[in-house]
Amino acid sequence: MHFMFRFFKRKYNNLVSDHRFSEILQGSIWAIGGHILAAVLGLGFSVIVARRYGAEMVGVLAIINSFFMLATLFTVLGTPTSILRLIPEHLMKYSPTSAFNVYRKTQYLVMVFSLVLGIVFFLASHPIADKVFSMPHLSFYFALASAFIVFKSVDRLNIQAIRGMKLFRMFALMQVLPQGLNLAFLVSLRLFWPVDDLPVYAVLCACAMTAVVGWLTMEYAFSNQMGRDDRVHPVTCDAILTLSLPMLITSAMVFVMGQTGIVMLGIFCTEREVGYYAIAVKLATLTSFVLQAINSMAGPKFSELFYSHRLDDLFYIARKSSKLVFFTTTPILFGLVVFGKPILNVVFGKDFGVAYPALVLLVIGQCINSISGSTGIFMNMTGNHGVFRNIMIMAAGINIGTNLCLIPRYGINGAAIAAMLSIGFWNIAALTFIKAKFGKSTGYFPMLA
Predict the structure, then answer these.
(1) Nearest-CA neighbor of 37 among 155, 169, 146?
(2) Can you list the residues of the chain whose pLDDT is less than 50?
(3) CB 3.0-4.6 Å disulfide test: which of 56, 59, 111, 207 passes with 274?
């Protein structure tokens, strides 16, 4: 035990003392801090909703969240990933004004598609609730959420644009803001309007407020950097869409793997079972917040290094990022496996203990994700988004097929198995491709490296 402690301590010290990695490390600390606080606030919101409004309301919120994610897939058109690549590229090659023009054009595209699709979903809210979910009583919530699709879409774009601008502290705040506003609106609105479905209204109000803050942040950030003599490289809407659409397919496949379990549970099972699974997913993805936080900082750096042809530095940073992910997620993984059932029983209520087997399966999937490193963002930032799209299509097919086979018989455990298998497949496939093309790997496991 003492040897292992010294081993991990030595590896950690080597990691944090590296000046070449300091930019990503500094940004990651802010991002991780933001994710941790957001996770705490999110769990607090879920606990309040579960205890005061019941598992059914947790399930309703999970279904609405899935609806938002599905709708915004087609409104943002893959631009959150492409803008993360384009902003650093234009800042490095041209100027802040050139980067702003790309951002503004992308923003207008997203808003137009959001308004059009929001109207379509509003008109189709009853068929969606009745025919897709067999829950016609949810049609009002789908109609209400449709009016907020434009806010959710703009928010998704702005968060990635803030990443591209390397605004570390603001990105951390944008992680915390939605969860903090969820709680704030839930508490404040209850004082004046104590209705049974108040959590739904709190979430929607928080969504709108977060979108406005993100928009104002980007306007202010660019206005402070742009100059009259800036060199501008024009980019057409067609060029933006040509780059973004393969990433849209990739994002769609990520949605499939992340949300198909909840959607199919909503079709085959009750809201209560959806609620159990949603809580298991929320706990399990505590292990992925570190990867997301580090990707937040590493993505723009990958783009910058690759397009300046510094491949050795690129893989050096990628490996260092993977090491940081491993050493920060391992304690969380073990903690969830060992203490997961008491957490479910004590924090959320005794009936949530049935979600523990699903939680363990989901944690295993997140473990594979952590060990593999930043495979997805690496491929998207280095021009291999087409190959990554194909990998994600295959992984989504595995996810859908496994869910269809297992959910009717095994319920939430079947959904967890499907998620674990699909995550494992795309990570291993991506690692294999990167190794074959570049002769190096982005993954990290201390006993093998």
Answers:
(1) 169
(2) 1
(3) 59
